[in-house]
Amino acid sequence: MEIKELRSFVRVAETLNFNRAAEQLNTSQPVVTKTVAQLEHKLGVKLFERTTRRVALTAAGVVMRREAEGLLAHFDRVQRAVRHAVAAESGRFAIGVTPLAMQTVFPALIRGFREAHPQIDVSICELPTDAQVKALLAAEIDVGFLLAPADDPALEVRTVHSEQMRLAIPIAHPHLRSLGEGAIPLSAFATDTFIIPPRSLNPGVHDEILRACAVAGFRPRVKDCTEGQSCLCLVEAGMGVSFVTSRVECASNGTVQIVDLEEPAPRLNVALAWRRDDPSPLLAAIRDLSFPEKAAAV
Fold first, then answer.
1. Does domain 91-162+269-297 have CATH number 3.40.190.10?
2. Average pLDDT per run of 10 along the chain, which is 298 residues long?
3. How far apart (Å, rounded) are the C-alpha atoms in residues 31 and 235?
4. How remote is the C-alpha of 37 from its chain's centroid?
5. CATH of region 3-81
């Protein structure tokens, strides 16, 4: 048996859906089906009962799921322990960071960390939130500055920075003159198309935007856009409106207006994330820098 086969089997056992398991494994459904079939062939038993309407574990599959989850958990612990040992010996500390974290809390924190530990080789990996979660679980990075929420029982996630998002709208927006000065209710844009990141790229931001719109009393029309500057270009072209961080002041030769929003408005939360079972003293050091009030209380 191979680790890949066990991971594919466990994911199908959890979801009872080959398509959904493939999405979570970032592969195709035929690959997952073939991998599970190979495992069944090696074991000489059926692990799933499949019909056109449902997938269910067989009795052998129930036993296999329990044992496979234990094997994978043990394999992950061994992998992390080895990587921790290698990192400690090499003096390397790998940090994941999102663009928003890079623009806000990260520079001061990493400067303080490097001043306190000049002998450590700090590796900075700019990664989106979902990639950071995977890298943390695989012990490929030691800590991550990502966008909350990031839910995994193996990780501790604590917010270190929060800010309200603003809205970029075309300068020719029909409501611009009538909206007046100051903060504007989000509901004023209920009929607009919202240009936002796809959920597959950034589920936390995507869900927070939809949540804020729902609280404001509407369900937005959505157009996916993967990169911030491209989103602003679509706003300039009159394709819709787009949320931006507080650091965006102007855009596109005066053809885009950035407006403040009344509550409820989406918030971006930068969080520090790490593995619960990581004993690294360097991790403790960066936590103390990120949460100085808690460090002082200890």
1. yes
2. 89 91 87 92 92 89 92 81 64 86 88 88 89 87 90 88 90 71 86 89 84 93 85 90 78 75 87 87 86 57
3. 39
4. 31
5. 1.10.10.10
- pLDDT score of 296: 45
Per the listing, tokens 């400690």 go with 88
Instruction: Tell me where in the chain the CATH 1.10.10.10 domain(s) lie.
Output: 3-81
> How high is the pLDDT of residue 298?
42
Q: Provide the pLDDT for residue 248.
A: 66
Six-digit token string for 287: 């936590």
Query: Which segments of the chain belong to CATH 3.40.190.10?
Result: 91-162+269-297, 166-265
Supply the CATH classification number for the domain 166-265: 3.40.190.10
pTM of the model: 0.64
**Residue-wise DSSP of the chain:** --HHHHHHHHHHHHHS-HHHHHHHTTS-HHHHHHHHHHHHHHHTS--EEE-SS-EEE-HHHHHHHHHHHHHHHHHHHHHHHHHHHHHHHHTEEEEEE-HHHHHTTHHHHHHHHHHH-TTSEEEEEE--HHHHHHHHHTTSSSEEEEESP---TTEEEEEEEEEE-EEEEETT-TTHHHH-SS-B-GGGGTTSEEEE--TTT-HHHHHHHHHHHHHTT---EEEE--SHHHHHHHHHTTS-BEEE-TT---BGGGTEEEE-BPSS--EEEEEEEEETT---HHHHHHHHHH-HHHHHH-
Residue 155 tokens, joined: 């990780």
